[in-house]
Fold these 3 entries.
Entry 1:
Amino acid sequence: MIKISPSVLACDFSKFGEEVKKVEEAGAELLHLDVMDGMFVPNISFGPDIIRSVRKQCKMIFDVHLMIEDPIRYISAFVDAGADIITIHYESCQNPKEVLKQIRAAGKKAAISLKPATPASVVASLLPYVDMVLIMTVEPGFGGQKFMMPMMEKVSAVREMVRLSGYEIDIQVDGGINAQTAKIAAAAGANVLVAGSSVFGAEDTKKAVDGIRAAAQSVYSL
Ligand code: DX5
Ligand code: ZN
């Protein structure tokens, strides 16, 4: 099933609550919350307190993308703040398996993310511990960047690994997603589409969400 996860990084933070309501009413299933620490990536966004306050007024699935060093230090804080899915970066910790296990032990969905230079092969041993794999289609850190087409090979490789494993694992793409690139990513095997600028920058939010979904659904075969 195709799921859309608008990234709030592209919203107008002076009216955060209204922006979130807009994407919820547009039918997006997930809300993508990008947490950046200025260390793992060269940008700083927000932390658990902001997420906790948005949680109170929103029923969407909270898809928390942690772009922070050594994320094990903050898993319980994001669980308490209301995260439903917690994504950590493979490159951000010594022992990703332990962090993923901790996320699941807290009753939340666990996901692993790969930066563009990290090969698909690193997720092979982690498949038993994840509910989702995120293939970054830009260098993490900023919204509004150009979709990296060469990442589609990685999406297909991970989709095939997941199929052979027999686990039910979502494949997410993040960065430069609009209706055109969503179609390309879904054809390669992605089913969870993060979109920041193309959703929050659109005049008609519902039209943008529907357009991404329809384009992806037209080619997604699972
Ligand atoms: C980048 C973030 C993305 C970003 C996507 O580091 O992880 O979620 O907000 O933004 P767009 O869709 O504008 O590329
Ligand atoms: Zn993200």
Entry 2:
Amino acid sequence: MQAFLNTAIEAARKAGDIAQINFARINQSDIKTKAYNEFVTFVDEEAEKAIIDIIHGRYPDHTILGEEQGLKGDESDYLWIIDPIDGTTNYIHSFPVYCVSIALKIKGRLEVAVIYDPSRQELFTAIRGMGALLDGRKIRVSKQRTLQGALLGTGFPYRDQLDWLEVYLDIFIDFTRIVGAIRRPGSAALDLAYVASGRYDGFWEFGLKPWDVAAGVLLIQEAGGLVKSMIPGEDAVESGSLLCGNPHLFDPMSEIVSKYDDRLKKLF
Ligand code: 2AM
Ligand code: CA
């Protein structure tokens, strides 16, 4: 597993360097619209290509799922799930909150995770069963015991998820009345790394994609946290609608969201 992790780290640093070199140099003409309010730049594309080249250079038979290129390579037991820039909207606006996310699933199970933040040069890593690290030092989820005083992260529904906005906002109101504070920085992968490292006590968001969350989910689990899909019965990574937190806050957070199960079921 260490060799896979080393490959993921090399690829994440390479992609992060490409992003950082171009940071705050993006012109309007560099921005392409993928869909209404969904953007991509040549930097996302170059960084993804760099990651794919490194992984396929070493493991030509492995499958890669990337945000920009979709599936690359034949189907195999090894699936790398990559996001070259998580937080592209921030990146385009020179708002320095974004990251590279790389996860490896083997036979359907998350085994390796890397999240790299080029702005702070922070490297979050995990191998299943071996804990989670930040720059080589062990990290754990927070010890916060009550929602009172807790710091939660979240993301708003966007684009094709605007039907979920009302129920999302009702949940947001419930949390806002109880917790210490809520943050919405705009990079879900980095948010999950912050739950793993105890900076946040919990996080929830609807409608994310596997490449936004795969690495972060393993990081949180390896740091002693809990993750679940907010859509009953679904896998957290596949559904992309997830709730996570330290073991003290996971149940109280789940209880608040479960008040809305009926409304959520109608939307999914
Ligand atoms: P992305 O930058 O890789 O697309 C923010 O809530 C999270 O949602 C980010 O991880 C972001 O990942 C993802 N996201 C996907 N599509 C988005 C969009 N159109 N606008 C904002 N965030 C989006
Ligand atoms: Ca992206």
Entry 3:
Amino acid sequence: MAWTGRCPDCGEWNSLVETAKPPKVTTGGKAPAAAGPAGKPVRLADVRAIETARFPTGIGELDRVLGGGIVPGSLVLLGGSPGIGKSTLTGMATANLQANGIDTLYVSGEESTAQVRLRAERLGPAALEVRALAENSLETILATIEAEKPKVVVIDSIQTMHRSDLNGAPGSVGQVREAASALAEVAKRLEIAVILVGHVTKEGSLAGPRVLEHLVDCVLQFEGERERTYRTLRAIKNRFGATSEVGVFEMRSGGLTEVSDPSARFVEEATGALGSVILTSMEGTRPVLVEVQALVSPSELEIPRRVVNGIDRNRLSMILAVLARHAGIGLGTADVFVNVVGGVRVDEPGADLAVALAVVSAQKGEPLQGDGGRPLACFGELGLTGDLRFVGHADRRIAEAVKFGLGPVVGPRSGELLSGLTGCGSVREAVRSALGGSNQQIAA
Ligand code: TYD
Ligand code: MG
């Protein structure tokens, strides 16, 4: 196909992709029939149930996110930015699987087998038992899988795979889609679990993994900042388990270690300083306490800066607007920085109040303190009308904070009486309560 940079129909640049031609159907000169032969519907009860046996990877946090282990015949996409630890995680998982007698194959399109070995050495002797293949050719990889029939295959990464009769470069949408669907076919037919590693740029914008989301059974996103040690693993889609389940890891010298009680870590490290508050967030089905920090400083720019780490930037804009309109706290001439400590990402509306209170504390120059000088814990969603809205699992959020001695928690007022909660109906009330201390009367 000739290179066409711009779609003649919609005017978008670089939106055209090459796809393999479908086989020609000859109709003998006649017009194609309107309908083909009829299919045979089956009673669902007569369909052979999907094998629910799973291969546990031996990495508790990964297994939890997968829904109990990797399902044979399934396709898992593991996305994340370069250097986050995708190869490390898959290396560790294959090592455990191999040690449990489940045959694995680690296909690397980015590194030589010597480089893969180097990483495996850091991960321990079991990792050295994994069989590796350094290859980019999709045809060779498919043939190898057919010949070796491993139970679990890692393709690191899907963007480096290349089918020779398509002339798109590796990583192009056409190549990535082609490679993934060919691998999906082998996976289903031979009941092999395939983990596709995919790079995502910082903006999560790379076309590669995104086009695969509908094709795979499970999409895992590996997040965190490369410079920080904490990593979160999140299921965005999972045909065999719950989504929004989150695993927390820490990158150490011997690979990734599971952080099975992240709250303890984050609370221990919490500063309780000016502009700091503890958010009682939900990560999937698990409550996690994280520290949210804010810095407010006079801006020298026409349009002040809004810098976020771990929360959505538009969400911050919304929160600042609500604070200005409904709590009388204007930040129009100030730079605002918000950071979720530890490189954690919180993607839930329940984080609103924590962001708001951290910002208010930073702006007023007053630290927020809970009972006994402990850090203040809070949760709740801000409505555009300045109301503080209820969010799911309030009881579990409160219980988690209380467990770490951080009660009472500032949160939305509830119909039922929840002990350990300082219920507030609006953001104004929550600000007053947080700044005034828990023993002061709250003016309505
Ligand atoms: P890697 O798994 O190669 O990242 P990705 O495949 O997502 O690009 O590793 C990421 C970083 O982790 C790398 O800079 C080295 C570091 N690392 C450790 O700190 N400890 C270890 O045991 C290993 C294997 C890697
Ligand atoms: Mg890698």
